[in-house]
Design a protein that fits this description.
Elements (H helix, E strand, L loop, with lengths): L6 E2 L2 E2 L5 E4 L2 H7 L2 E4 L2 E6 L9 E7 L4 H4 L7 E5 L7 H6 L3 H7 L3 E7 L5 E7 L1 E4 L3 E9 L2 E8 L6 E2 L2 E2 L1 H15 L4 E5 L5 E3 H11 L8 E7 L1 H5 L12 E2 L10 E5 L7 H13 L3 E9 L5 E3 L7 E7 L5 E4 L3 E5 L14 E3 L13 H12 L5 H10 L11 E3 L7 E4 L7
Parallel strand pairs: 12-15, 15-19, 16-27, 19-20, 20-25, 22-27
Antiparallel strand pairs: 1-2, 3-23, 4-10, 5-6, 5-26, 7-8, 8-9, 11-12, 13-14, 17-18, 17-24, 20-21, 22-23, 22-24
GO molecular function: serine-type endopeptidase activity
EC number: 3.4.21.102
Pfam family, one: PDZ_6
């Protein structure tokens, strides 16, 4: 593992390996189930919050307790369990303890206000639910051109114990619709996708890649010393090279990936594996962040070109996920520990839903599709103003994500060799 971790002060540091208790990871990735509120929140400084920031909802899992309570993306949270001191500055001084304790509790009372200014107070209970990672899918038409759009939050496994899952069925239906409408370009929205199953990434890559790539290298593994010595990286082995086998009839001219600093692992694998085949016809659109002084900076993706497989510890309910492999694309590139750098950065619109053509990141992709150039800086400044962001200086977004598999790339036993 030492050889698969980035160097800090000349020494390797593993910031990825972890222990999972009670099968939480296998439940979320292999089975698509989660026990939580299904709500992901963050702090955002707006024109009305001054130098402070308010707590907002950035995403809600379908079928989750939060979704059933009517909580949606862009809602502002006013109080939790009657506590109204949930602003950024107050919570930062307390290491966000109130927020984290609430999100990890069994139940809570939450008051929130929608974008239509409707205030609601609900008690919600953290419970088991089947979450649907598909946030939106549609076909957008402009000037006679049909552009597919697909947003999803996790690479949930498409097979579980060799049995097709609901995830596979969803993707099959979506791509069948794309093929039926003869889309020529595709926007893949991975802005909050922290990864998941490697096999799911392979499936999507085979759906998106040109047919001419069939038989050519998708990616190869770089293993630690022990796995190399055991011969696992040989052709036909469990970690042997993976080649493309085109699925379906999509013939795409361009593909756009929408990313943030939360885009990680299997998401980065998909982007990196397709780049050698689309070259300049593949664009990555990211977001602006802030440095420690609140100045605007370009955000890369998370930076996790390594992954795990599960090792169960006997006589316990503990699984070890140790950093065991790195992936390299057909150009032998995979050293993006500092993240993948977007071709263009813009402002995300937290107050518009996934798939809305006027949302900042989607609008950037559609403008490039139509004109072959990016939106002007004047247009982006106007967009930031509409989206309530403070342009001159804003607090670095503080996201709070309780999902256990955040930022993961997992290789599960599927009964097939690679």
């Amino acid at each position: 593992m030492m050889g698969l971790t980035p160097l800090v002060n000349g020494s390797p540091v593993d910031r990825y390996s972890f222990i999972d208790r009670q099968g939480t990871i296998s439940g979320e990735i292999e089975e698509g189930v989660s026990t939580s509120y299904g709500m992901y929140v963050f702090y955002l400084q707006t024109s009305s919050s001054g130098d402070n920031a308010d707590l907002y909802v950035r995403m809600v899992d379908k079928n989750s307790p939060a979704y059933q309570a009517g909580i949606r993306r862009g809602d502002r949270i006013l109080s939790i369990n009657g506590q109204t001191n949930i602003d950024y500055k107050t919570q930062q001084s307390q290491s966000f303890k109130l927020i984290n304790d609430a999100l990890n509790s069994k139940s809570m009372t939450i008051k929130f206000v929608s974008q239509t200014s409707v205030t609601t107070e609900k008690q919600i209970v953290s419970s088991l639910y089947n979450f649907d990672p598909i946030l939106a899918s549609k076909v957008i038409e402009q000037n006679g051109k049909k552009i597919g759009y697909l947003a999803f939050s996790s690479f949930v496994a498409i097979y579980n114990n060799r049995i097709p899952t609901a995830m596979l069925s969803s993707f099959e239906n979506i791509f069948s619709q794309f093929e039926g409408q003869n889309i020529t370009e595709l926007i893949v929205d991975l802005r909050y996708n922290g990864g998941g199953s490697v096999e799911t990434a392979e499936y999507l890559a085979n759906r998106i890649v040109p047919a001419s790539a069939t038989g050519k290298r998708m990616y190869s593994y770089k293993l630690n010393r022990n796995l190399q010595a055991w011969g696992w990286a040989k052709e036909g082995g469990e970690f042997g090279p993976v080649n493309y086998a085109k699925k379906g009839t999509l013939n795409l001219n361009k593909v756009y990936f929408l990313v943030t600093e939360s885009t990680a692992s299997a998401s980065e694998l998909l982007i990196n594996s397709l780049k050698p085949y689309f070259k300049d016809n593949q664009k990555m659109i990211g977001t602006y962040g802030a440095d420690s002084r609140g100045n605007r900076v370009v955000e890369n993706t998370y930076g996790k070109p390594v992954g795990f497989f599960r090792t169960s510890i006997p006589n316990t309910d503990v699984d070890l996920y140790a950093t065991s492999f790195q992936t390299m694309n057909a150009d032998n590139y995979g050293d993006y520990f500092a993240g993948l750098t977007p071709d263009r950065s813009t402002y995300e619109d937290y107050f518009k839903d996934f798939g809305d053509p006027q949302e900042g990141m989607i609008a950037e992709a559609l403008h490039y599709s139509l004109n072959g150039s990016w939106l002007s800086s004047t247009s982006k400044t106007a967009l930031a103003s509409v989206n309530k962001l403070r342009n001159e200086k804003y607090i670095n977004r503080q996201s709070i994500d309780t999902r256990a598999h955040a930022n993961g790339m997992y290789k599960f036993q599927t009964g097939r060799s690679k």
